[in-house]
């Protein structure tokens, strides 16, 4: 029983991190796509310089959310 209690220490935080991180990744993806659209609006064109920062932000946050969400 003592060993079980010792192994369960911090399990609540692990559950919080595991459940919140994918949602934060999704939120970051949405914000990154919005930034891409704002870049298009600001420059008036769809060149790579206007879109790339928002798309990069979206991809990075998506990867971070998936990295935490996938069990190992």
Describe the structure.
- The protein is an all-alpha fold and about 70 residues long.
- It has three helices and no strands.
Name the features.
72 residues, mainly alpha, 85% helix
Summarize this entry quickly.
About 85% of the residues lie in helices and about 0% in strands. By secondary structure, the protein is an all-alpha fold.
Specify the number of helices: 3
- Rounded radius of gyration (Å): 18 Å
Give the CA-based shape.
Answer: rod-shaped
How is the main sheet built? none
Arithmetic mean of pLDDT: 85
The helix/strand order is HHH
Low-confidence stretches are: none
Oligomer: single chain
What distance lies between the first and last C-alpha atoms, to the nearest angstrom?
Answer: 26 Å
Q: Percent of residues in helical segments?
A: over 70%
What proportion strand?
A: under 5%
The class by helix and strand makeup works out as mainly alpha
Number of DSSP strands?
0
């Amino acid at each position: 029983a003592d060993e079980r209690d010792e192994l369960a220490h911090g399990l609540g935080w692990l559950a919080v991190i595991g459940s919140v991180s994918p949602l934060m990744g999704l939120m970051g993806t949405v914000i990154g796509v919005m930034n891409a659209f704002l870049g298009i609006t600001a420059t008036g064109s769809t060149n790579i310089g206007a879109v790339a920062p928002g798309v990069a932000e979206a991809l990075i946050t998506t990867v971070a959310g998936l990295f935490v969400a996938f069990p190992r």
